[in-house]
Amino acid sequence: QFQLVESGGGLVQAGGSLRLSCAASGRSFSAYAVAWYRQSPGKEREFVAGIEGGESGKDYADSVKGRFTMSRDNAKNTVYLRMNNLEPGETANYYCYAKYFRGVYWGQGTQVTVPS
Description:
This protein has strands spanning 3-7, 10-11, 18-25, 33-39, 46-51, 58-60, 68-73, 78-83, 92-100, 103-106, 110-113. The protein is mainly beta. A hairpin with a 6-residue loop joins strand 4 and strand 5 (46-51). The radius of gyration is 13 Å and the shape is globular. The N and C termini lie far apart (40 Å). The relative contact order is 0.32. The model has no long low-confidence stretch (mean pLDDT 94).
């Protein structure tokens, strides 16, 4: 069974950094399009960053460009989201998303808290 498990969330002061990880199990997801989304209480889930299958392209939300970097390590079947200069408004549950043909998968999320 294909599963995504996020980790790396936590409490960080404004201006600080975190690296989130999303590990896939069950099969290789090197060909999958993978993305990070986040959702704050009372708000809709929003796109943060994404990588196409085969790492043909990366995309970032305007709000995180220059501060967040997404990468993947196919040998470890893991994708990462490096987040620098975090802001209080970025407190949210961060979710990993993967898509391959008609298959769409979500992880359970990892909480990031940036106190104001």
